[in-house]
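Example record

The entry below shows one chain as it appears in the dataset: sequence first, then C-alpha cells.
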Amino acid sequence: MPASTAGYKLPYPLGTDRVMDGDDQIRKLAQSVENMVQTGQVTIPITAPNTPASATWTFPVPFASATPTVLATLIAVGPLGRGVVVTVTNPTATSCVLNAQAASGSAGVQVFTLAVGPVTAVS
C-alpha cells in the first residue's frame, strides 16, 4: 500500500491504485492492525513466599521494529491471597519477561498479557 495514516501509520490504498488489487490491500490492512495488538496468558511459577519468579512471554507475531508497550494483570490470585505483585521487564520486539512475587504461599500465577506495538505494513 502506497500510503499510511499520520498517527498510527495504518496502510491504505490510494485512489490511483488498481481496483482489482483491492482485496489484497484490505487483507494487508487487516493483518497489519491485527499484529499491532497481541494478547496472551502466561503462568509464572511461584515456588516460595517472597521469592521472585519469572517467565518469558514470546509474542505470537514479532513486532517488526520498535519495542511494544506491554501490560500484565493477574487473572485470579487463588491460594496466594492478595499479596502478589507482577511486573514486566526487558521488552523487545519478540518477547518480554514477566516477574511475580507473592507475600505468602506458592503456586502458579496466571497472568493476562497485552502488547501494543507499532503498525507495520504486511506485504
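Notes for this example: The chain has a mean pLDDT of 83. The two ends are 9 Å apart (CA to CA).
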